[in-house]
Structures are given as structure tokens and as C-alpha cells.
Amino acid sequence: MSKFANQVKTVLLLGALSSILIGIGAFMGGRGIYLMAGIAVLMNFGSYFFSHKIVLAMHRAKPVTEAEDPRLFQMVRELAGRARMPMPKIYTIDDPQPNAFATGRNPENGVVAVTTGLRRLLPDRELRGVIAHELAHIRNRDILVATIAAMIALVVSMVAHMIQWGAILGMGRRDDDEDRGGGMIGMIVLALVAPIAATVIQLAISRSREYLADETGGEISGEPDALADALQRIERGIATIPTRLEARPATASLFIASPLRGGGVMSLFSTHPAMAERVRRLREQERRRA
Fold first, then answer.
1. Whole-prediction pTM
2. Residues with catalytic annotation?
3. DSSP the chain
């Protein structure tokens, strides 16, 4: 799938999220939806401006100076130049699992964090691919996209809870008892289904942005195969190396590969695409370059 197609998919998914919100707002009526929307906007406004500090503190990430790791700094500086973006701040997380994430609301406030396990496990060629992927997230403003999606999904969830309590307490816009019974069932079904649908769409947006970051990262580094090799090595590391990252599932979506173990039906609720498909697309991108 091309970058343009991924961008279109993101827009369509955001539109679907908005449609769910508008639909339940029309069903609910009244001013409750505006109150919940205001709360969600304020929460996500704070997250947009301060989430990078919160995430770095949660993982006890430490800033790295050029004197401490000149090779990493040289690599990031070179790739940032190729991407035509400012040099991001670099942090390390003391964890044996190979992983990395990027954060920051725009390229001027970008942060790239890598685990000590990633530095030990990956050769420079593959590390370069991972850094390029993270820079792609910053350049594509994926933090902004994720914040918008989270805001809409949160409003849907909050309004759904209001609808659920309204149904339990017998509230609703129904004129007679016969209609009220069916209306209450409809309200309860809506309250249960809408948050699940919103979550599934939000996660689909996350997966779409991962594909986009893979492709953009391959372009920045000039070696999509290197990123594909890195993803396979990271996948093996996640499966075999103990980690503390699993203790913070709320931040799993930020990492280049989810530190959480799981599969089967739960893959529908995964923040990341299947690794095999990511690798396949990168190999195809490499073949197109040849």
C-alpha cells in the first residue's frame, strides 16, 4: 500500500470515528455530549503538549549526550538531515528488550528513545533502519494523529457510559411504555457496541501509521531491507528476552514493536500490524528500489 493510500485510509478511519460520535450524539440528544466532548478535548490537549514528558518519566528514560554515545548521535544527525528535519533529543531506557519509540508533538520537539537492549542487539545497519522509522513518526506528525483519534474515541466511550446510565435509570426520549422498552434495549446495545467499534477503529489508525512509518523510514535510510531485518530481530528478542516494558501497556502503541505478548483474536486489538506483513511490505519496497 502506498503512502498516499495509507494517508487516505487514516482520513477515512478518522471519519468513521467521527461518524460514530455524531451518531450517538444524535441518539442521545441534550447537552451531555458537549460536556463530555469538552472534557475529552481538555484531556487530550494536555496529553498532546505533555505526554512526551510523562512517557519518558514512566520508563525512567535518561537523556544521552554526544560524549556518551557519539556513534548514535552521528547516526541520528545524519538521518535527520536526510529527512530534512531538526535533530531530535535522544534518550535511553535501561531495559534488555530491544525496542524504541518516538514522541513529540512536532519535528521541533521530537524525541527518540531506544532501549539499552536495542543498542546491544542490533548492528549499526539495522539500528539505522529503526532510527529512520522513529524519525518518520515525528515527520509524519503521528503523535497529532494519535491524539485526535484518542480524543474522539474517548468522547465516544464517555458518552456511551452516559447513555448506559440513562437507560438504567429509565431516561430517554420515548412517548409511551411500549416504545420505552425497545428504546432502552437500543440504548444499552449502543452503549456496549460504540466504544468497542471506536477502539477497533482507533487501533486500525495506529496500525496504518506504523505501515506509513515503515515506508517513510525505508525512504529516509535508503535501506528498507535493513529495517525489515531489524524488525525480525526485534520480534525474536521480544519473544525471548524478559522486560519491564510489559508492566506499562498504556504506552505499548508508541514502540516500534509492541512489548506485549499475545495473538489470535486479540490481534484485532493490537496497536501494531502483523510483523510478517510489515516485513513483506519492506522487502517489496526494497525490490522496487532495485
1. 0.76
2. 134
3. --HHHHHHHHHHHHHHHHHHHHHHHHHH-SSHHHHHHHHHHHHHHHHHHHHHHHHHHHTT-EE--TTT-HHHHHHHHHHHHHTT-PPPEEEEE--SS--EEEE-SSGGG-EEEEEHHHHHHS-HHHHHHHHHHHHHHHHTTHHHHHHHHHHHHHHHHHHHHHHHHHHHTT-SS-SSHHHHHHHHHHHHHHHHHHHHHHHHHHHHHHHHHHHHHHHHHHHHHS-HHHHHHHHHHHHHHHHHS--SGGG-GGGGGGBSS-SS---GGGGGG-SS--HHHHHHHHHHHHHHH-
